[in-house]
Amino acid sequence: MNYLCEYSEGQGYNYRFALEAKQTTTRRYLFPDNGKRTSRFIASLDRPELVGVKPRGSHEHMAGLNMTHSVSGMEAGKAVPY
Model-level pTM? Predict the structure, then answer.
């Protein structure tokens, strides 16, 4: 993500990126599995202001969680519209 943010700025694209937590993926080592972990990952980036969380209540429901896990990204001010 640091590379993508740096490249986007270097090219003058002015992009913002949205990450979506994947609770039901078999590749949990690739994707954060809830909004809170996604927010913590974003906070560790060099340019966190360019990255947000895409909340998806249906994925929480499929994983046996509830919407509050997705809303944690909104509380951190990192939620982005679909």
Answer: 0.66
